[in-house]
Please model this.
Amino acid sequence: MSDYLKLIHNENIKIYIRARTWIMFAILLIAAFGVPMLARLGGADKIGMWAGMGVLTLLSFLLTVFAASIAADSVAGEFSRGTVKMLLIRPWSRTKILFAKYAAVLLFLLAVYAFFFGLGTLSSFLLLGGGGEADGIALTASSADIQEIWTNILYRLIASVVYVTLAFMLSAAFRSNMLALALTVVFMFMGGIVTQLVDPSKYAIGRYLLFANTDLNQYAGNPQGDYGVTSLGFSLGVLAVYFVVFLIVGVYVFRKRDVAA
Amino acid sequence: MDTISDRLDKSVGAETSGAPVVRFENVTKRIGGKTIIDGLTLDIAPGQVFGFLGPNGSGKTTTIRMMVGLMAISEGDIRICGSSISRDFERAVAPVGAIVENPEMYGYMSGYANLMQYARMRPDISKARIDEVVDFIGLKGRIRDKVRTYSLGMRQRLGVAQAILHRPKLLILDEPTNGLDPQGIRELRDYLRELTRREGTTVFVSSHLLSEMELMCDTVAIIQGGKLIDVRKLNGAEAAASVHEVAFDVGDPALAAEKLGVGAVRDGLLIVQADREQSAAINARLVEAGIPVYGIRTIKRSLEDQFLEMTGGGTIV
Model:
């Protein structure tokens, strides 16, 4: 087991040794402080820290794209550099190596979420939480609102895991990081169009689309969701199926194909 | 109680007559209906430098990729120290160190960090061992620099370092002299000799550089068009017993050829196909016949000549 942790450690090094990873963190740092700062400068300093956090959750797509770019590079980058043949001739099966990479990618996703929303909480408190003694947290939000924010973030994290897994699968299958990232981003942003064309409220098949289920926050106000035909449990089930399929396809292709890089 | 010589005999016996380190069993590779490797069957005995020779495109790298599990084997199997590479990969590849084609490294890491990557993937590689290997390959002064600043020769050295880090029983090197200067080639050659002698490592080297292989290898296998066409020992008893062209510097070569009934005259010398014993016999007959013999010389054909002869020359790219 400790040997396997060393494999994950290797993959972590490959992620965090690179300057671009720290550029991502720098961008997140700027966003986490910049957005509450803009709100304050715009005269919204009385909206309270939890409203500020609500605005920050809208930026979670950044976290998904950053983690997806790491996922897309994870396997495909080894192929484009040719290092994959050095990696795969060690006494570890391809499946074990692939899961070490996947673990490092998920850890990175958790790290950017913790970093962004951790800093976001701090900056929102400092900049929007109110300055007066009486203007404490309890006055600006009820505990139900606070819980809603964290649930919102959790739901976004679940969707991010699915997209990052998709990027990772595409990376392992196509061995091209540009293609893997481009396809993932297209998937992330074309959801709205596809669900309009194949409206789940009109066509039964629509409800099984990935896009109809990735936004779990649709159930915050309405248990039947945006289309009136799904539920939180249903969406979680659909996401779980996609998640497992992505992993199986990724592992299968990675194991099977000859390495000629 | 064992005498020292008893024990020496045993250890030598264990090394030379042991099970083959690599066993190719009717290995076939097809890609898209094209047969790249065709029924390769070959045993490689431990403790030698084994050369794998062939023109470009003959299937050398494909064979090596199958040996280390990078490519699947279409038919047959490869066993390394008895374990099947296709069915028991982790066990089979454990005693192997390899460079497949160019040694690609993580350019954004230092040479040392690259070695650490591979060290972490094996049990029991100490920091001292890494330092020892770095010292050996002569990269001590640059090992903390990023690999992207390395020359091709330095990368090649780092490639050798990652391959020998865990003291492999089988070292596979694909065109190892690519990018090395003459000094580096010589060092590599000496080192491979040292490895086989001191640690009993078996070295499997592929190349199309014949003169290089001749200096480096104990045995060479020659493949062409995916087929094994010859295996031969270059040095040692078998080589000595083989028939060579022998040149006799004699008083009257034409008369000598006539008296002997064999041989031909070339460049004023009498040329005869003979092994060692036969050469001595011919000498005796020439002296008996009253023909003065000024010198006897074995004409060693270079591996290159033999190789060109076997592969038909024209197909070498």
Notes: Chain A touches chain B at residues 3, 6-7, 9-10, 13-14, 17-18, 81-83, 85-86, 88-93, 256, 258-260 (CB under 8 Å).
